[in-house]
Amino acid sequence: STKAQSSLTIGLIPADGIGKEVIPAARQVLEALPSDLMPAKIQFEDLDAGFELFQKTGTALPEETIQALKGHCDGALFGAVSSPSHKVAGYSSPIVGLRKKLDLYANVRPVLSAAGAKTASGKTRPIDMLIIRENTECLYIKDEELLTDKDGHKYAVAKRKITEFASKRAGQMAFTMALQRDAMRREVTLGERIWKHKPKVTIVHKSNVLSITDGLWRETVREVYESNSEFVKSVDIEEQLVDSMVYRMFREPEAFDVIVAPNMYGDIISDGAAALVGSLGLVPSANVGENFAVGEPVHGSAPDIAGKNIANPIAAIRSAAMLLENKGYNAAASAVYRAADKVLASGKYLTPDLGGNAKTTEVTEAVCREL
Ligand code: ATP
Ligand code: MG
């Protein structure tokens, strides 16, 4: 996170499908923030990217977009990209490109219960955890090989890379965010605090099996903790093997605060966690690097409902709040989270994915009125 400045420039990249509906919704909410909550003036810049753009122009992530983001934007909001069902020559996903170009090395996913939403189990449970997924390595280096042994039998091998460098910065981010969340809960005592304890970071690994790779991950994250006296004083740590992590997360999600995991485990845990709170249309994320963050709803471009004004805008609105939080505007971020919660809790403005019949624009306007 960075210190709040007096003006903030946000690049808006709606990209494809419902991205074109939920990103304008998020913008409208940011524009509705009163100045006592949001001291900085927000400037928006519309930027192009996406599969539809690729089909029109042959490029999915134009150089101008990258230059604008690197040059004068403080952060960005990304909608969604359509994934073509078959491999298209020359096309690669623009969000994956952005993560690389801007070195957004962690994917941060808050999993937050909402009073008005039904969960997978039908019950509403108080959940407020933050999953930090390392975003650059592990099995995602995609170093795979299909081979044949001397008897002609096929076998396949995948390499998994864990570096001290990436583990260190993921760890650093986890402890820093644990403190930041705690400060935000204290500073802005809005609503009921779900996590009432000392900040806690849970390190996920499987070093009983992968003692070298996960061993390096676990030791490096622990070292980050032990070498910082503020972390040691103000944050608790625990470890969970990834399998028991999943088991415990479903049994007692309220037992977790911040969770930090290597890429592949983080991917699996965070989709599982999204199921605990209901619709995909509720779950935000942020891609975070040293000086830059890109808010991005977890859902895709949802071609089945695109252009009908029925997409749930809450995930995008919450992603905008994450961006504010990352930039140090805690009061504004909290207000947006709370306004979204109130609209959900009232049950009056729910999109079809949550069993209602409200339009995207009606939900957005309701959130703006709450602000
Ligand atoms: P993509 O290839 O872009 O991921 P997809 O077809 O997988 O597209 P997703 O966006 O991943 O679509 O959505 C999966 C399902 O969840 C779809 O049926 C979609 O309509 C629904 N969905 C996703 N996001 C939302 C939302 N914001 N509001 C309502 N429904 C949503
Ligand atoms: Mg999808």
TrEMBL record:
An individual GO BP term: lysine biosynthetic process
Isopropylmalate dehydrogenase-like domain location is 9-367
- Entry-linked Pfam families: Iso_dh
From which domain of life does this come?
Answer: Eukaryota
Q: Name one GO molecular function term.
A: homoisocitrate dehydrogenase activity
Judged by the first EC level, this protein's enzyme class is oxidoreductase
Asked if the keyword Oxidoreductase belongs to this entry, the reply reads yes
Q: EC?
A: 1.1.1.87
What Gene Ontology terms describe where this protein resides (cellular component)? mitochondrion
Entry keyword Oxidoreductase: yes
Sorted alphabetically, the keyword list is: Oxidoreductase
Give the family this protein belongs to, as stated in its UniProt record.
Answer: Belongs to the isocitrate and isopropylmalate dehydrogenases family.
Q: What is this protein called?
A: Homoisocitrate dehydrogenase
* Source organism of the structure: Mycoemilia scoparia
**Gene this protein is translated from:** LYS12
